[in-house]
Amino acid sequence: MSFRFRRLQQVSRLLPQFYRGNPCGLFGRSIDFFATYSSSSRNVSTGINTRPEQEGCFGERYSTVSETKKKPLSEVDLLSFIRSSLNKPQGASHCWLNKTEGSDNDFKEDGIFLILAGVYCEDSLSTQDDIVITFEKVKSLQQRHPFLQVLAFQHSRSICINNISTHLIQMIIKEYITFPILLSNKHIFETAKGPCFIIFKGFKNPLIYSEKDTDLMVLDKAVSDLNMQDNEKPVISNMKSSWVKPIEGFKEPYLSSALRNLLLSFPGCISVEESGDRFFLSDVNHHRIIIFNSDGKFLDVIGSSPGFEDGEFESAMLMRPAASFYDASEDCLYFVDSENHAIRKADMERRIVETIYPPSDANKKNNGLWRWILDKIWTKRDVDSKSEFPSESFLFPWHLMRSSDNNLFVLNRSFGTLWVMDMASGLIREVVKEPSKILEICGEMIVEKSIPLKQIPTDWLQQQLDANCPFEKIPYAGLMSSVAAYQDHVVVCNAVGQMVSKFSRKSGLISIFQFSNFGILGLPYWLSFPLERVSAVLVDGVLSGIHIDHFERFRLLPGTVDIELNIDIPQHTNLVEPLQEGCIWRQARGAATEISGAVNKATSTEKVGAAQQWYDEIDSLSFSVQEIESSTENGSMHAGEGQDGKVLIGCTVNTSPGASEVIIYAALYLRLKRSPTSDVDDQVKKATRIADVLDPTRKVSRDLLVKLLLTSNSNMEELIFIRPLHVKLKFDCLDHPKADNHLKDIILTDSSVNVNVVL
After folding, report:
1. How many domains does the chain have?
2. In which region does residue 263 sit, left (phi positive, over 0), alpha (psi from -120 to 50) or beta (all else)?
3. What PANTHER family does the database record attribute to this sequence (predicted)?
């Protein structure tokens, strides 16, 4: 009897904690997805089963089983919650981050999913190295298996989109996370031992892997096995070499859609040629390398858009280029093409980009016209489905150094792998993964590259995302490719403030580069549109999915039309420099047979983008000699800065009877007007004004943009940003007027139109 009484006392003390009606705290409590809580003295095994319909509460079942067994939490609850949230951007207990608006049907419920759970840390970046490795695994699987549907699940204290942790948003931008993230304040589970991967098909029979103990090959096999159930020979990418992803199918982080309108987007690495006064800046999230001098004048740019393609600087495609070094003996720049998993070389004299690694088999292929056409239109590369994921794959390199014996030392960003590569042949000689051996091989070089960082104030370095990630007690080693010494200055990439700063060794003053000659950058790749959209139909002056700043229709007689745009730039801003022709893109189509810009571009010394060259070549096929001469004499194509904050863009078009369109894109480089005050409240107002210019359609929350802009603690008036301009003009031309001489001659009419655009 006394035993039963003592037993009853024990149970009565536990009941208030587990009673279903008590709103006890799942929130703020850490729960292991695989854990079961047991008491060996009482031989009681408990399992937690959260119920999605009862938020904030949970029930527990008691068992008198003598042996303690590990039972996973209810995967059904997690999967059903995710499934119910796929087509709901926001709900009472969830919201989606980094997901495109109108993409409700992006996920196929009967497809294969990979869920990354429990990887983020809202309040600190203490596990930065582990997070980098985790994202590299996920992105590798995304590239290898195009059919794979990836998302992340993260518990968040706040599911209000404006209160999302700044660390989380910075991580999305830094790691270039393209998959959406499901935030929830429901503790369906929360891993205590790090992140985990959940792989399943059709929301059934999930496979759960602890990230800490799971090799990439194991995850790859799990995905391949699920895919083989329905496909005898699935399409995968061979990660032994590199991957090819056309820009049409390329997906960028949704949160970066507004931030990419900054002059620089995550400037990650820099190198210098001191004798030639040239800096080589990896503008990582813009997928290009910018070359400028000590005065900040842009000299050239390598790369035109995301992808993987060799060729001239204007047409070469890169994917998040990182560290680089200049070889004076060859007049070449060697650089890491991080997410193409490649080492590439830019010949500065010929202005040609070539791939060093992986070795190219282009010489074995037919390089004729038919081969070129197939390469352009064939977007899928089929390989044997039995191809294994090599454990020594060259994945996500970041740092690059040259040894005294002309070997290349390539390191990933977490310093977990060192590839020793022969510089001449591009072959990998050795792969090292032991930290002690990596330190033995290239430790001195890492220390040497990190020396300039010691001259930079520590508080400034701590703002950078990699500042608290040392390698083997080498402070700030993660920033070693982001710094370069030049004369009496230390030049360093400010990846948080999206600037390039320089520190004077003598005075200790900090300043930023004042850039100029923006026309050399050309029109940003994200302002142009794929060729198939040319035939799209306008509905009420709006092309589906594309923001148009101004649309206007004219009814004119056929002939020559002089067009002049008068553009009012946004209030509180100034042009950094007059608009240059290199930042303008014009196209006429339909009954409009000529744009005068095509002729002038041919003789221009400005850099012209590949897309503009393509259209110019097609347009020029229809030009006659007489038309070229008259167009050149007119000289009516012009661009520049007008009065009172206006920008002028002009061109000439020859029209025929029928309907025609003229499309004009331009990139206006702006800066906020100087203000005498600089208090905190004023900085917030300035950041808000910049956010409105960066994202006029409000695709991304303005509060999120303001929060990110203020993170760097920089003066908002020093930040240069782009205001994209998109104008579409439609002309309906009647038949030619007849002459009075009864000879059936036609009369060509000279017309002019003035279009006022307010941004």
Report:
1. 3
2. alpha
3. DUF1618 DOMAIN-CONTAINING PROTEIN, NHL REPEAT-CONTAINING PROTEIN 2
Contacts 24+ apart (CB under 8 A), 469-473: 469/125, 469/128, 469/129, 469/414, 471/415, 471/435, 471/439, 471/446, 472/415, 472/435, 472/439, 472/443
553 and 594 belong to one structural domain: yes
Clarify whether residues 306 and 328 are in a common domain.
Answer: yes
pTM over 0.90: no
511 & 532 share domain:
no
Full DSSP string of 187-207: -S---SSS-EEEEEETTEEEE
List the domain range (segments joined by +) for residue 277. 249-363+399-516
Is pLDDT at 500 greater than 50 in this prediction?
Answer: yes
Final residue of a structural domain among 180, 205, 239 = 239
Q: Side by side, which strands form the sheet with 278-283?
A: 267-273, 278-283, 288-292, 298-302
pLDDT tens-digit readout, 351-360 = 999 999 998 6
Which helix (H) or strand (E) segment holds residue 18: the answer is helix 2-18
Which one, of 389, 44, 378, lies nearest residue 225 by Cα? 389
- Of the listed ranges 40-49, 529-538, 628-637, the least confidently predicted one is 40-49
Reported as type and span, the H/E element at residue 668 is strand 646-672
CATH code assigned at 209: 3.40.30.10
Q: Are residues 722 and 590 in the same domain?
A: yes
Cα-Cα-Cα-Cα torsion 79, 84, 86, 87, nearest 10 degrees, comes to 170
pLDDT per residue over 262-315, tens digit each? 999 999 999 999 999 999 999 999 999 999 999 999 999 999 889 999 999 999
Beta carbons within 8 Å of 752's beta carbon, 6+ residues apart:
561, 562, 563, 564
On whether residue 73 sits in a domain, the answer given is: no
Same domain, residue pair 554 and 499: no
The domain boundary, picked from 189, 210, 239, lies at 239
